[in-house]
């Protein structure tokens, strides 16, 4: 469960369009995560949706949600490659919104920062599973979709205690070998992040 006492633990606001934006680019980890915008709520600035849709028969431009241009991408790397290309050619005034699991939205945030966007120009909304991406501080390997308080590192095989310390740069929670002092002595393994 998220701990408000850990300063590095991110907190998220509900999705909301920024009225002063020149344009809005809303990116979702899956099509169902896109917000349902009714026409009276639309600002004057143009809106685009991008979403991951694994069905290769519906890739490219589609129109959903009151005719808003919606681009479908096969997977997160596919979408992020196109986002990098797009942000390299964008101008000031675009606001970027990322919706999805924590690992996905922070991948989008890292890309936005790398392309020069300020923190007030991109907005993150966590939605879906709370499973974590864990970074092994010993071998620097990422282990995805961790749901328990103790996880086996996918790189070095160490039993990692999943900490609440979150690195925005790495888009991951820190994992530290839990039985370093006494090999094999593990606390009870519990489902902590459903």
Helices and strands, with pairings:
Blueprint: E1 23-28, E2 47-52, E3 60-64, E4 68-73, H1 76-88, E5 94-100, H2 102-114, E6 122-126, E7 132-136, E8 142-146, E9 150-152, E10 159-167, E11 172-177
Parallel strand pairs: 1-2, 1-5, 2-4, 5-6, 7-11
Antiparallel strand pairs: 3-4, 7-8, 9-10, 10-11
Helix pairs in contact: 1-2
Descriptive overview:
This protein has 194 residues and is α/β, with parallel strands linked by helices. It has 2 domains: 23-126, Nucleotide-binding domain of ferredoxin-NADP reductase (FNR) module (Rossmann fold, 3-Layer(aba) Sandwich); 132-177, no CATH class. The chain has 2 helices and 11 strands; from the N terminus they run E-E-E-E-H-E-H-E-E-E-E-E-E. It has helices at residues 76-88, 102-114; strands at 23-28, 47-52, 60-64, 68-73, 94-100, 122-126, 132-136, 142-146, 150-152, 159-167, 172-177. Strands 3-4-2-1-5-6 form a 6-stranded mixed β-sheet. The longest helix has 13 residues, at 76-88. It starts with 22 loop residues before the first strand and ends in a 17-residue tail after the last strand. Residues 5-121 form the Dimethylamine monooxygenase subunit DmmA-like N-terminal domain. Keywords: 2Fe-2S, Flavoprotein, Iron, Iron-sulfur, Metal-binding, Oxidoreductase. InterPro entries: DmmA-like_C (IPR048037), DmmA-like_N (IPR054582). Pfam families: DmmA-like_C, DmmA-like_N. Residues 133-176 form the Dimethylamine monooxygenase subunit DmmA-like C-terminal domain.
């Amino acid at each position: 469960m998220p701990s408000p006492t850990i300063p590095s633990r991110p907190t998220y606001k509900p999705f909301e369009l920024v009225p002063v934006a020149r344009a809005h680019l809303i990116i979702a980890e899956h099509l169902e995560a896109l917000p349902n915008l009714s026409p009276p709520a639309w600002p004057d600035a143009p809106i685009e949706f991008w979403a991951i849709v694994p069905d290769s028969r519906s890739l490219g431009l589609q129109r959903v949600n009151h005719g808003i241009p919606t681009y479908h991408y096969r997977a997160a790397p596919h979408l992020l490659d196109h986002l990098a290309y797009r942000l390299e050619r964008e101008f000031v005034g675009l606001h970027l919104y990322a919706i999805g699991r924590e690992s996905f939205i922070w991948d989008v945030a890292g890309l936005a920062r790398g392309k020069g966007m300020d923190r007030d120009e991109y907005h993150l909304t966590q939605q879906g599973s709370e499973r974590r991406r864990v970074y092994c501080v010993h071998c620097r390997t990422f282990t995805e979709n961790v749901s328990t308080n103790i996880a086996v590192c996918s790189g070095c095989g160490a039993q990692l205690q999943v900490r609440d310390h979150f690195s925005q740069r790495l888009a991951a929670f820190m994992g530290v070998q839990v039985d370093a002092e006494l090999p094999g002595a593990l606390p009870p393994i519990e489902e902590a992040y459903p």
